[in-house]
Amino acid sequence: MQYSRVMASPWWTVAVLAVVAVCGVILAFSWPTTPLGPVGAGTLVTVLIAFVTLGRRAPDGSSRAAVFVGILVVATFALVSVAPTLAVFQSLAMPAGWVLATTRRAGILSSAAVATAAAAGFFVSLGPSWATFASAGVTFVFSLTGSIALGLWIWRIAVFGAERARLLDELTAAQDELAVLHRDAGSTSERERLARDLHDTIAQDLAGVVLLVQRSRRELASGRLTDDTLELVEESARAALTETRTLVAGSAPVELTSGLPEALTVLVERFRRETSVVVELSVELDSPLDRDAEVVLLRCAQEGLANVRKHAGASTVSVSLVAEDDAAVLRVRDDGRGLDPAALPDGFGLSGLRARLALAGGTLTVASDGGTIVTATLPREVRA
Question: Are strands 316-324 and 278-284 parallel, antiparallel or unpaired?
Answer without folding.
Answer: parallel
